[in-house]
Amino acid sequence: MTRNSRPLAVFDLDNTLSDARHRQRFLERRPRDWDAFFAAAPQDPPLAPGVALCLEAAATCEVVYLTGRPERCRRDTLEWLAAQGLPDGRVHMRRDQDRRPARVTKLELLRRLGDGRDIRMLVDDDELVCDAAERAGFPVVRARWATGSEALREAQEKEGRT
Question: Which residues contact 41 (CB under 8 A, 6 or more apart)?
């Protein structure tokens, strides 16, 4: 089996692999402090259930990371993934000015990734992303091992920021 024929395991980052609770306070104020929110991401502790699932999936799948983080966070994100010992994989990030809801941007990319490839699972904490992916026929693992905030949910769906 070649790398390109392996099924894909697609993982979200924030509150799936990384614990973003410590930085959600930046979204609870008005105006929201997006620069501080993303600048604090390198300090996220890993979430053991998500990391374990990712490492397990890497045994049979090509791991791909799909995040709503903006492209300007790429270096910090790659360094964080490496520091956690997570598998190498393509990292798909939101264009810096893309403000569409995560359920739209992620489903669009899932469809592109799945064109000619088997997607074994999408692992994400965003319920609306999970609902949209399931409706489109993708297998979903709901990452319910972290506590998100209402401010983060609102940011994901109304502001298209993460």
Answer: 14, 18, 20, 23, 69, 73, 76, 77, 80
Q: How many domains does the chain have?
A: 1
- Residues in contact with 140: Cβ distance below 8 Å, sequence separation at least 6, in sequence order: 121, 122, 123, 124, 130, 133, 134
Rounded Cα gap, residues 67 and 49, in angstroms: 18
The range of the structural domain enclosing residue 79 comes to 3-159
* CATH number of the domain enclosing 108: 3.40.50.1000
> Which segments in the chain show pLDDT lower than 70?
1-4, 148-162
Note the pLDDT of residue 156: 55
User: Among the residues of 1-146, which ranges form H helices?
Assistant: 34-39, 48-57, 74-83, 102-113, 127-135
pTM comes to: 0.89
